[in-house]
Amino acid sequence: MPSFDIVMEPDMVEVRNGIDQSVKEIETRFDFKGTGAKCELVDKSIVLHADSDFQLEQVQSVVTAKMARRNVDIRFFDLNAKPEKVGGNLLKQTIIIKCGLETDQAKKIAKTIKDEKMKVQASIQGDSVRVNGKKRDDLQEAIAILKDKVKDLPLAFNNFRD
């Protein structure tokens, strides 16, 4: 029976490349000379360091610009994290990289498929949603509908089996 998985995973190689490019730009920019401005990738998060709120915003804009240039969807990043004081004038902000669908997001996707009354079934499996159907065309139609209806999540469709 044909099936595919709906997942939400960024390309971590491109994220690493975006961070490397951001580090190079931050090191060479004149307005960051002699400051504690830097960014680094730690596990599934990006840690930004700066001397002031303004510099922290500038470092964040450099990182988001480099990610956009590397075709990494910005919706993977939780940019609303509060900056915290590390010591002295230094500020630190941790941006979490979202990987995997949360339960309420998976339920929303399954409900969207059910509401369309298609000949496919959606089942939640951990941090992904598996969609099964009798015909390949039904699955392709489900993908098109999800791309149209669910715009707030950067969904990826993989593991397509015939």
**Molecular shape:** elongated
Characterize the main sheet.
Answer: 5 strands, antiparallel
Count up the helices: 4
Q: Give the rounded overall mean pLDDT.
A: 89
Low-confidence stretches: none
Q: What Rg do the Cα atoms give?
A: 20 Å
Order of helices and strands: EHEEHEEEHEEHE
Classify the secondary structure makeup into a structural class.
alpha+beta
Oligomer: single chain
- Please report the total strand number as a whole number: 9
Strand residue percentage: 25-35%
- End-to-end CA span: 7 Å
Range of helix content: 25-40%
Describe the structure.
The protein has 162 residues and is α+β, with helices and mostly antiparallel strands. The strands form two sheets. Strands 2, 3, 4, 5 and 6 form a five-stranded antiparallel sheet that branches. A four-stranded antiparallel sheet has the order 7-8-1-9, with helices on one face. Helix 1 crosses helix 2 (53-69). The chain starts with a strand and ends with a strand. The chain has helices at 12-28, 53-69, 103-115, 136-149; strands at 3-7, 38-42, 45-50, 77-78, 84-87, 90-97, 120-125, 128-133, 156-161. The protein is elongated, with a radius of gyration of 20 Å.
Question: How would you describe this structure in keywords?
Answer:
5-stranded antiparallel β-sheet, 30% strand, 162 residues, single chain, 4-stranded antiparallel β-sheet, alpha+beta, 4 helices
Question: What's the short story on this structure?
Answer:
The chain is of the alpha+beta class and 162 residues long. It has four helices and nine strands.
